[in-house]
Amino acid sequence: MQDLLRHRLFYRLDRVERPLCTALNALSQIPSVHKTFVVFSKLGDGPFWVFLMIAIGLTTPDAGNLPVVLIGASLFNLLVYKLMKGQTLRNRPCTTWEAINPGTPALDHYSFPSGHTLHAVTITLLCLSTLPLLGAFLVPIMVMIAVSRVILGLHYPSDVLVASGIGYCVAVIADHFVLL
């Protein structure tokens, strides 16, 4: 019964979101747009965030234990993201619709939620809270990572919106553990 409800929900959502996904994915046919969003999508893959955490730890003594909290929040996000993807099994737009082409290879098979967006939102909001100048620098990167996932045909807008909501919640909770 639960599988049937999940299937019906995503079946309907996929069809509602398809026109927007198709229109945004068409932008990736423009070479400069494609290159730009591939760069931002790659920033969300993980190494950038690891580098950022190390850099904060090594160069910003007034950040307190922020790097440790960032690592903990990222590990928590990874667990949530893997559990949700394993339960929801929502196919990516580029595998569901012929008109939507993947602008870059997907890291895994399923779409919901967007792990790139989840990490970008959590890390950006935690940095914004503790290191406002760095956070302000990260906000446009966070937005571009989230948008890149839809433009590159890898996620539906709802994947990104739900991931943003989860990332916000994780950041709010994790912020209570930051000691300056």
Topology record:
Layout: H1 2-27, H2 31-43, H3 47-59, H4 66-88, H5 93-96, H6 115-130, H7 132-151, H8 157-175
Helix pairs in contact: 2-7, 3-4, 4-6, 4-8, 6-7, 6-8
Keywords for this structure?
0% strand, mainly alpha, 180 residues
Sheet-strand content, in percent, reads under 5%
Uncertain residue segments:
none
Shape: globular
Rg calculated over all Cα atoms: 17 Å
- What's the rounded overall pLDDT mean? 95
* Integer tally of domains: 1
Q: What class would the helix/strand composition place it in?
A: mainly alpha
Helix content: over 70%
Measured between the Cα atoms of the first and last residue, the distance is 48 Å
Number of strands: 0
Multimeric state: single chain
User: Total helix count?
Assistant: 8
Elements, N to C (H/E): HHHHHHHH
Report on the biggest sheet: none
Characterization of the model:
It is a single chain. With 180 residues, the chain is mainly α. Helices cover 74% and strands 0% of the residues. It has one domain. Helix 3 packs antiparallel against helix 4 and helix 4 runs antiparallel to helix 8. It starts with a helix and ends in a 5-residue tail after the last helix. The mean pLDDT is 95.
Brief account:
The chain has 180 residues and is mainly α. The chain has helices at 2-27, 31-43, 47-59, 66-88, 93-96, 115-130, 132-151, 157-175.
